[in-house]
Structures are given as structure tokens and as C-alpha cells.
Amino acid sequence: MIMWPLAIVAGADMVIQKAIPGHHTNDFKPVYTAVAAFWRNEPVYTANLNSVDPHYLYPPGGTLLLAPIGLLDESTGRLVFLFLNLAAAVLAVYLLLRMFGYSWRSPLAPVGYFALFLSEALVNTLTFGNVNGLFFLAEVVFLTLLLGRRDTAAGIVLGVTIAIKPILAPLLLLPAVRRQWSTVALAVAVPVLATAVAWPLAADPGHYFVHNLPYSLRIRDYYNSSVSGFGVYYDVPAPAILLVRGLLALAVMVSLWLLYRYYREQELFFVTTTAGVLLTAEFALSSLGQQYYSMFLFPFLFTIVVRNSLLRNWPAWLAIFAFYSYETWHLFRWPAFGRNLEYSRTTFGWALLLIVVCCVLVDRYLAARREGRLAHGIDPVHLAPDLPTRDHSHGWAANDPRSGCTTGVDSELEAAHSRSRHVE
């Protein structure tokens, strides 16, 4: 009763006050210009990459897949694109609820939507006219199909996203370590096939590889929250940047090894947590990381309801607030301090999250080794239960050993609790 009105009003405010009016940063315009040129068989990759305006950086296969947008006029196309991304994000959260064993009737549902509508990731995705909402849905669908061992469909979904932009490409590691090789093969084949089909239809497909792709791999000093982008913006010496990236990469490798070694049989926990670590590492350590990429960490954040979650500590949520909050930290009384705080919070948030995950896992490992129980895993002996109460009719059942989730409440206690409610 409390959270649904808050979630609905927050969503309405976000769409009406922020998304529809738009912003001076317009990610949709270069996409529309490119696909319109594609339909006219004109060159697509003609932007001046020395400017700080949004550029069209999608490969020829991505242009082909996005081409239907060009059938509409620009203003109509933007609104359609906006509401498609909004609907995709809303559906993605619903599927996440199902994945973790909850229904829309659970109190987790309005809490999840409230957090989504207040996040910088969704607000700026819709306000700028970006494709991240659709990619968020594709990520959740991919994880769902992967857990369900529907390898062909999972590979096609991931492959389509890679054909447009490879932001979810690190997730290829998940089917690889789970030996779902057909998923890996299809995820690689789909973008290759899309490029092959688009090549004879486009006016300048080769220009992408000599003009746009090298630019995409460069470290730019604006709108870039990666460690490298932060370092370049603040003129940090290159060896210091390399050292920080190396230490974070080491933490990531330790985390991934411990997750694979001790949690791979708990499929839901392993897949969602590993996906979060891989994507956070990509955003922090690659050449480009933008704050609204954090939308793809939502499946990882949902693991807070699982009893062996790595996020049940305050430093993790300090990090999450740093990169998820839409609030700005430009301070009227201390402008220089506020500017530095605003421009660095996403970088430090991603880095802190990677450090927290590594520290929790290493602490669990050392405690288990000290107590002589490594053979039984590294989970602490005493864990809080899953929260809130699960809906056993949806998603991965609470006591399914593949999920890594147990309620700790047997059927007799549940029956007794039900009888007590009836008496009351």
C-alpha cells in the first residue's frame, strides 16, 4: 500500500518532467540521422569525432537492426523509442522478480520499480533517448534463458545486442564457463551475420572500421567515468592510472575465481553475481564507462534478497548510491569541491563495489579455511534468511538447490504461521 503509490508517482514524474521534454544531450538524434541516411543509401559514418556531441558509433549490423526507426519522422520516432525503452525496463524488472522467485504482488515489486524510476540510469537513458532500456531487457532475458538451459535462444539474444553495441559482450564468459558452447557460438555468429547482410546494403560500411571503431577504443576526457577517463580528465600520471587499473583487475580475477570455485553449483546466485562483477569491471576498467550503464547491474542488485548475497553490507550500498543516484552534487557554497565530487562519484562507486565484492569473498574463504570447512563451501555458518518471503509459484523455487536460496522455514512452521494468522 505504501510503495506502489510512491513507485507509480515517481515513474510518472520521471517520464513527464524529465524524459519527454528531453535534454541538450541527445543520443537519439545521431541514431535517427544514421538510419535515415541508411534508408537513402547515403554515407552513415560522417560525424566529426573531434566534437563533444553524441556520435553514431554503432557498426553496420547495428544500423541494419535499428533501421525501422528511420521509417518514422524524428519527433515521433523519439517518442516511440522512449516508450519502448521504458516498457522494456519495466518488463525487465518483472522478469527479474520472476527469476528470483517473486510475483508482482510481493513487496519487492514496488520497491524495485521505485528504485528503477529514481535511478540515474533509467532517467538519463530515457531523457537522452538511448537504447539501454532495450538492452537491459535483453540482458535479463539472456540470463533467464541461460539459467533455463535454452542455449540457442540465449545466444541469439546476446548476439543481437553485440551486433548493435558490444556492451554486454563480457557476459559471454558465463555460457563459456558453464560449457553452453552453442550459446557462445551463436552470440558470436549473429553480429558477424548482421554485418555480412548489412555490408552490401550500406553506402560506407568499411568507414566504420577505419573511422569510428578506433575512436570507440580511445580514452576520452569527457563524459567518461571509467578509471582511465577519470585519470585523463584530472591529468593523473599514466603509471598511477595503470597501477589502479591493475589492482582492480586483480581484485576482479580473485572474485571471479572464488565465485566459480565455490558458487557455480548455485546457479542463480552465481550467474547474477558474476554478471554484475563482469559488467562493473567493464565499466570501470575499459576505455569508456558512462554512469547510465549502471542499469545493467540491476540483476546483481537483486541478489540482496538472497541469503548468501555479497551486498548485505553498508559499503556496498554506499557504492551503489554513488553511481545509481540521479541527484547531483554541485554545491553552491563550495563549487570546486562539489564539481569534483560529482565528476568522481561514479568512478569511485564502481571501484568500491569491486573492492567490496572481493573483500567479502576473500573474508569468507579465509574464515572457511581457518575453520576447516572449505570442502562444504565458503558461506558463513550463520546467514540471515531470504527476504522478503518468497512466492513459491514463480521463478526459481526458494528451496531449489540450483538457486542457492533457502528460506529456512519448513512447511510445518509455515502451516502453523498460517493458522495463527487465521485465528487473529
From TrEMBL:
Highest taxon of the lineage: Bacteria
Transmembrane segments: 79-100, 121-147, 153-174, 181-202, 240-260, 267-286, 292-310, 317-336, 348-366
Membrane topology value: Multi-pass membrane protein
UniProtKB keywords: Cell membrane, Membrane, Transferase, Transmembrane, Transmembrane helix
Major location category of this protein: membrane
Keyword Cell membrane tagged: yes
Location(s), subcellular: Cell membrane
Recorded family membership: Belongs to the glycosyltransferase 87 family.
Protein name, entry field: Alpha-(1->3)-arabinofuranosyltransferase
Organism: Nocardia rhizosphaerihabitans
